[in-house]
Structure formats: C-alpha cells, structure tokens
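TICKET #2291
ISSUE: user wants both folds in one file
ATTACHMENT 1:
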Amino acid sequence: MRYTLRALVCAGLLAVGSGPGRSDEAPSDKESASFFNGKNLDGWEGLTDYWSAKDGALVGDTGKGIKFNTFLCSKKKYHDFELRFQVRLAKAQGNSGVQIRSEIFKMDEYAVKGPQCDIGGGFWGSLYGEQFGGMMKAAPEKVVKEVLKPADFNDYYIKCVGKHVTIKLNGKTTVDDDFPKMPETGIIAWQLHAGGPMEVTFKNIKFRQLSNK
C-alpha cells in the first residue's frame, strides 16, 4: 500500500511537471536550434547582405546605413511561444526589435507590420505596433533606466500566449498585459532600423513553442 501510494504521488508530480504551456520549463536545445541554428540563416528570409550567423549569434549590420526598416523573418508562423536572448546595440547606437505574430507587407525591402518588442533609444522593453498603429504599451521609464546596459548585452524575454504579452528586460517586467488587437498567429522577425550605421547582436537565443497552432 505504501509503495502504491508513493508511485501514485510520483506519477502525479510527473504529470504536473509535464503539462502544456508551463513557463518554468527551460527551452530545449533541440527546439531552440530548430528555431535558429547559430550556424547559418536556414529557416529565415530577408536581405541577407545585412544579416549573418557568427559564433552562434545572429548579427545585423547596416554598414553605412539604410533608408528603410528591414527585417530577418522566420519562414514559419507561430502562435503561443517563449523567446529569450541577449541583445546588444554596438556603441548604443541604432534601434532594433523583435516582431511577433507579424507579416511581411513589402517583399523587396522585407518590411514587416505587426506588434514589435522594442530595442533601443527610449523604447527598450516597450510593445510597439510597427505599421500597426504605433505604441501599444510603453515600458516604464524608471524601470528601464534602472536595469538597462546601453552598450552591453541585455537579457530580453518575450512570452506571447493568446492575447497576452509579457516582456522582461534584465529580469524586470516592462510589459504584462492583454492586447485585443493581437493577431492570432504570424512570423517572428528581427529588425534593422532605417538611419545611420548600426550593428545589433542577438546571442544565446532560446525558443519554446507553447502551443501546436
């Protein structure tokens, strides 16, 4: 009887630990590698003169600058997911971001519209509507100032489930809200912003899908 009870308890704990959509589970290396393999741009599309995989990281570099926003876009669409990475804007210059549940609307420039988890300037940690209505939720300025390392790598976390989006910058929550206009599904895309020379590096990219849609 004691053995049976112990077995049932263990089985219950395993069932709870393996439930779908648990945010405390670490993304698997296999799932993260299938998202971005760190070796090349397989699974992604964009103006590849500006993008490369270096030492396991994703690097965007505009050279002397560009006249339009452009994105490296996933070939797959995603619904619910968690994405975490470290990001640095070289010399604290330029602006970048990560599009979620978005779509390409101008293929020759790989221009994208939809919600963007913003990176750079006074927009770090905000949710911005790129060609999608503008600011959706501004990050608290005080929080950003306390934690941001402008010219160094910053930890960035994104979770999108249903209409709810959570963004964390260096462990501090900057967005955690429902957004009725959030699309049901769409691509994920990394941004290079129009303007002068800039370089952005995304490393230690970890991805976990939270639904099968």
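ATTACHMENT 2:
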Amino acid sequence: MNITKRFILVWTALIAAVGLGASAAAEEVERNFAGSAQLDYLAVPSTIRARGLTFDGFTTELALKLAVDFTEHFSANIKVCYGCHGFETAMAYVDLRVADELNFRVGRMNPAFGDFPLRHDPANHRANSKPLPYDMGRMLRRQEWNMSILPAPYVDNGLEVNGTHWFGDDLQMDYAAYVVSGLKGSNDAFDLDYIQSRSGSLYYVDNNSEPAFGGRAAFTYNFTDYSNLTLGLSGMYGNYDPSGELSYFIGGIDLYLRLDALVLRGEYLLRRTEFAVGSEPEKRFRYEFDPERNFFIKDGFYVEAEYPMADWLELFYRFDGMRRVGNVAITSALSSNSGILRHTLGSNLVVTRGLRIKLSAEHWDFSDFDDEIAIHTGVVGNF
C-alpha cells in the first residue's frame, strides 16, 4: 500500500472517530449549510467574436459550504465550488480554537490575503466580475496577461495560525500566519502557472519540497454602530518551480470604510516574480536581457463604492487597473511596460430576499491593444 493510500485511510479513520464522538454528543453539535450560485452572461459588443479575448457567454459560479461545530473549541469546514475550471474542493480543514487570540487551522484552505478573498463568492460582492488584481478567468486579454496578480480564490494545503484581539470596545486586531505548499510553475517558466496550482490531474501537492509562507494583519476601528474603518496588510513569499530557484513575493494593502449605508473599499497588490533565463536569453526575450533583472513586477489596484438607493436597488462603481513592468517572451504581445485601466458601473436589483439581478458595464483601456466594452447580465442567489 503506497503512502498516499495510507494517508487517506488514516484521515478517514480519524474523521470517522470524530463522527462517532460527535454522534454520542449530538446535542452539542451545530451544523450550518450555506451556498450561493451565479449565472452570468458576458458580451463584448466592441468585438464580434470575443472568444479569443476571454470566456464570454454564459458562466456559472457555485459555492456550497458545510460547517460543523463539534465543541466550543473544535470545528470543521468543507466547501465545494464550481466555475470555469469545473468542480474543486475550495475548503477541507479543521479548526482548533484555544482562545479568541489563538486558533490552529489545518487542511485545504484559503490562506489569508487581502480583503476581496474574504468575500469572493458571487453572492458576497455586487459586481458581476472580480477586481483586476484578483480576476481569475473572465478578464479580457487574460492569456496575454496570464490572468491577474493573485487569482481568487487562492486555495492551498497547509497550516494557518490566526486570531482576534480586542483593545477596549472599539479597536479590533485580526492576524493570520501560515505555511502552505505555494504557487506553482515550471523550471523554464516566464511566470506562475495557475493550472498547475489548481489541477487535480497534476496532484494537489508541493512541487519543490519547499513550503511558502505568508500572513495578514488587520485593524478595525468602530467609530459608531454604523461606521467603521479597517486597514489590512498582507504578504506571501515562496519558490514556484520544481528546482526551487525561482521566487515570488506578493504584498498588499487593503482599506475598508463604512459610513452608514455607504461602503468604500480599496486595495493595492504587487507581485515580484523571477523568471528562467535559459541558455540563450537573446533568443528567449524580446528586449536585451539584463542579468540583474531576471524578474518582472505586476501590480494593480481597485477602488469601489456601494450604495443602496432603495430596498430594491443597489448601485456600485469600481475603478481598477493593473500593470506589468519587465522583459517579456519574444512571442508575447505585451511590452516592457504594459497597463490596463477599467471603469465599471452597475446595479443590483433585489427580486426577493436572497435573489438579485446583477447588471454592469465595463470600459477597458489597454496600453497594447484596442479598447473594449464589456456588458454583464447575471442572476445570483444565496441560501
């Protein structure tokens, strides 16, 4: 019997034991099942056939989550999501809470980074699409850009220590620190390969025997019962190639402000990624190769505002952008300094509790390509 099968059998036995223990004290067990689903149609009227630019047409996003509190200090969460990548296990972890300030999370999880990943499920944000720094598959020119800075949700295996502490009644601190398998790519890579990180056919395991690590710290101040401010800082570092020689660093800052019904958000992300030089860099890169610049920088931001005009109507506006600075492959359509800016205006029509119609229009301004117009129409429900 190989190691993988033994590992599965051990964990199955442990889960079964926990289940038997929980059955013996069923009155103490609390279960919560929740989920959301969104069907969105993306049209790009500025291009006759947009399939070469993005995943246009219909796309479904689904999230199903089961949380079980076995005791006051021990719980488990399992979440399955569905999108353009198919079904995937987005969560499968246990929490051991020693105190509010100290919690141990073990398993497959969303490592803490930034504000948007906390609300990436389609029912938890007003726009049809994700902010550019976190976009996964529906950004225009996604292949040329190799998607975003940190496509959300970022799912990985590892250990996270997190907690919350209150300073008086109004100031709250949240923190998280983790070690995970890390993002993946090839030995001869120009950039990260998100298919390797998300594909079960390539195994959900560490590809270089070196864990990545990171963390987040956030401070929230409550001005009143109806207004509060949150400031967060995040970071992540690791090597992504099998040889463990190409590194990446991702840093971010996020800001959230609620003023009664008005909600304002903003984030800035930066990723520094090393790339393979190869034996003949003069044939590999478009621009003259500088041995001291074997990396590129990809950074981006978004700011957005949400306001409910009525019980049945919510409006939002988002301005976001992304930039890539550094040498590119000789076949790349990007330049050494490429950028995107996007304006998004939209609304949510509340049909009934838990059911909304999402409408939005986007203007894309590319430095290396023609500008584009995108229109989203979607229906989202949560339960």
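RESOLUTION: both attachments delivered.
EXTRA DETAIL ON ATTACHMENT 2: Residues 3-18, 20-25 have pLDDT under 50 and may be disordered.
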